[in-house]
Design a protein that fits this description.
The protein is an all-alpha fold. It has a single domain, classed as Four Helix Bundle (Hemerythrin (Met), subunit A) (Up-down Bundle), CATH 1.20.120. 79% of the residues lie in helices and 0% in strands. It is built from five helices and no strands. Helix 2 packs antiparallel against helix 5, helix 3 runs antiparallel to helix 4 and helix 4 runs antiparallel to helix 5. The longest helix has 29 residues. The chain starts with a helix and ends with a helix.
Length: 132
């Protein structure tokens, strides 16, 4: 019996994403994951459903706040400041991801929304591990 793509991805995922990675390597991976956060935020910001949903609006605001907070450290290439700021904003990111995953079925059952919730959950969970 062959494994599904999800099982293959789970099997190849490192059990300890921080492993022996240097802070610069961790920030590089986090920055890749932040591109997923950005795309989910942009998708939600421009969807019609956000206009009348205060919880969805709060998800969009919280994601933007996290992204904006690490911007200066990203621009300066300051790994220490990046990780320090992200540690401060980690709870906000995790709370936004959890809220979106919770309300997504109520907001829309469309595949785009389901995939956005999945993408945000995966990215935020790995970011959380890398920041720890």
């Amino acid at each position: 019996m062959s494994e599904t793509p999800r099982e293959a991805a789970d099997a190849s995922a490192p059990s300890d994403p921080t492993g022996s990675a240097s802070p610069a390597e961790r920030v590089a991976r986090i920055d890749e994951l932040m591109s997923h956060v950005w795309m989910v935020r942009t998708f939600l910001k421009h969807c019609d459903e956000v206009e009348d949903d205060e919880e969805l609006q709060s998800v969009v605001r919280d994601l933007y706040d996290v992204l904006l907070a690490v911007g200066p450290a990203t621009a300066e290439g300051d790994v220490t400041a990046y990780l320090k700021m992200l540690k401060k904003k980690r709870k906000r990111l995790m709370r936004a991801a959890a809220l979106f995953a919770e309300i997504q079925p109520e907001v829309s059952g469309h595949t785009n929304f389901a995939m956005a919730a999945r993408s945000l959950t995966i990215a935020s969970n790995e970011i959380d591990q890398l920041v720890s």
